[in-house]
Amino acid sequence: MNDLPGAESLLPLPTATFHILVALADRDRHGYSILQDVAARTDGKVRLSAATLYSSIRRMLEQDLITELRDSPDPDSQDERRRYYRLTEFGRRVALAEAQRLTAMLSQARATGLIPKKL
After folding, report:
1. pTM: predicted TM-score of the whole model, two decimal places
2. What domains, with CATH codes, occur in the chain?
């Protein structure tokens, strides 16, 4: 993880933060879209509340993990109240560092036989 300067200082990430970063990894999204994406990616096992989402977003903005877009990336969007968010380059590095950390933990669990190698 040393090839990702500064990213490891935020690890381990809160679960909600990691899910939000993953949701923003492939495209810009508004808050409700983030909630839907997290629920869909986890088959409903993780459902962020609006309070958790927006307190996480506020902290992530302060940490420069994400940025709020001035204009909607969706030309068909009619709702001016929607705020759209984008992953920053630093946010992408932090998400990658966390994914690498989790992968290493999973490898350790497999190496000890805690979980089957085929899982």
Report:
1. 0.87
2. 7-111 (1.10.10.10)
